[in-house]
């Protein structure tokens, strides 16, 4: 009896946000753990808490992220930094437990790239790469970059305020 292999549904979503700031200044926030500290302060409606489980902000760092009370589904998820490229300003975080994985995803990866344009401006490119279990293919979970877009806008505003530009 032959077994049919069912392929997972895969996809990629991308959002770009022009900052009006040099790439190095944006990376100062996104490149380490500061972004995880700032999101619950600036956007408690996105994440209410981000706790360091292990690591120093480099590859192998694990965060436990808590959704705000009342968010449907899982209360928390763990993500691990699997790439932190301080030369090219790229960070990748893979959800390893809870959250999206409890809702039909078998892979949920977020890549943040800070792309310098001219001397004074850059783009925050947020990409979500995902795979959905084949049993959810007819009713796939919702994937959206809206949270990442909101974060990009708030972090940019925060940096500008800190620099006295807003």
Automatic annotation (TrEMBL):
SUPFAM superfamilies: Bet v1-like
Highest rank taxon of the organism: Eukaryota
Record-linked InterPro entries: Bet_v_I/MLP (IPR000916), Plant_def-hormone_signal (IPR050279), START-like_dom_sf (IPR023393)
Cellular compartment(s): Nucleus
Pfam families, per database record: Bet_v_1
An annotated Gene Ontology molecular function: protein phosphatase inhibitor activity
Domain Bet v I/Major latex protein: 8-140
GO terms, biological process: abscisic acid-activated signaling pathway; defense response
Protein name (database record): S-norcoclaurine synthase-like
Family per record: Belongs to the BetVI family.
Recorded GO CC terms: cytoplasm; nucleus
Signal peptide: none
Main location: nucleus
């Amino acid at each position: 009896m032959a077994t049919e292999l069912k392929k997972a549904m895969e996809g990629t979503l991308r959002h770009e946000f022009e900052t009006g700031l040099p790439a190095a200044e944006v990376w100062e926030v996104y490149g380490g753990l500061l972004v995880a500290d700032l999101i619950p302060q600036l956007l408690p409606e996105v994440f209410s808490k981000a706790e360091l489980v292990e690591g120093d902000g480099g590859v192998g760092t694990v965060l436990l992220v808590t959704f705000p009370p009342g968010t449907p589904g899982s209360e928390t998820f763990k993500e691990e930094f699997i790439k932190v490229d301080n030369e090219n300003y790229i960070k990748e975080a893979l959800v390893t437990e809870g959250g999206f994985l409890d809702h039909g995803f078998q892979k949920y990866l977020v890549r943040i790239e800070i792309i310098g344009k001219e001397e004074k401006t850059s783009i925050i490119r947020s990409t979500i790469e995902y795979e959905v279990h084949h049993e959810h293919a007819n009713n796939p979970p919702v994937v959206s970059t809206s949270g990442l877009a909101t974060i990009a806008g708030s972090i940019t505003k925060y940096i500008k305020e800190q620099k006295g530009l807003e």
